[in-house]
Amino acid sequence: MADPLVLYEKTEPGVAWITLNRPEALNAINLAMRDELWTYLQAVGWDPEVRVLCFRGASERAFSAGADIAEFGTAPSYIEARRARHDRDLWALLEDLPAVTIAALHGFCFGAGIELPLYCDLRIAADDTVIALPEVTLGYIPSAGGTQTMPRTVPPGVGLGMVVSGDQIDASQALEWGLVNQVVPAAELESTVMALARAIASRERPGLAAAKGSVRRGLDLPLEAAIARDAASALVQRRRAGGGSGLDRASHSP
């Protein structure tokens, strides 16, 4: 029996890990792996125990080398391939998870191997990490949202340069541009991510989900509209928690 392409485990209260498990293919993401990721991400979304979800790659050489190019052109038709992606929008599902997501990056993070982490909330990189969106060198564009998520994460001109050049950058450059939150020695990567996950998981999930949602949804709004939306969201959260300040109660008294 073949090994599962995705491993899922809860390592301690509040924290779960997803491992991309195709080490022989540098964890290249194929359609079967996408299906397994979809299943586990749905499960995380419905599991109130999971407050932090961490991603890692099983290969010693790579978090993920990207989409499996061996499958390119194997779908019955372009239209059917696009329909399948629309019906199972893995990336939107990942972005909308109520759990805080952390990507533990090491080795090669190419194409979808950096596009997946770009949908995560935090990215911690080992010092051996190499990042690129090399799709243009193969005659196509990043197909998992990299043309949009990269320029929203790093300075827009830098993001555009990475998309159109396909050039590789190292961990120190990624840190300088804000693509990753922290760089650590490779031997300390997993323990660093675990310590961060443990700290975040000590908070209540509704508050984490609300804070994460406010940031993500507000980024595409004008500042005034985003602040108004944030204030309304905070009021709803306080009411659900049965709290609210004296000022809130006074403003709603007869």
Radius of gyration: 19 Å
- CATH superfamily grouping of the largest domain: 2-enoyl-CoA Hydratase, Chain A, domain 1
Which structural class best describes the helix and strand composition?
Answer: alpha/beta
The number of distinct β-strands equals 10
**The CATH topology of the largest domain, please?**
2-enoyl-CoA Hydratase, Chain A, domain 1
Q: How far do the termini sit from each other?
A: 68 Å
Protein model, in words:
This protein folds into two domains: 6-201, 2-enoyl-CoA Hydratase, Chain A, domain 1, CATH 3.90.226; 205-251, no CATH class. The chain contains eleven helices and ten strands. It has helices spanning 31-46, 78-87, 90-95, 112-118, 146-153, 156-165, 171-177, 189-201, 205-218, 223-240, 246-251, and strands at 6-12, 15-20, 52-57, 62-64, 100-105, 108-110, 122-126, 130-132, 169-170, 182-184. The chain has a six-stranded mixed sheet with strand order 1-2-3-5-7-10, sandwiched between helices. It has a four-stranded mixed sheet with strand order 4-6-8-9. Helix 1 links the parallel strand 2 (15-20) and strand 3. The longest helix is centred in the last third of the chain and has 18 residues, at 223-240. The protein is globular.
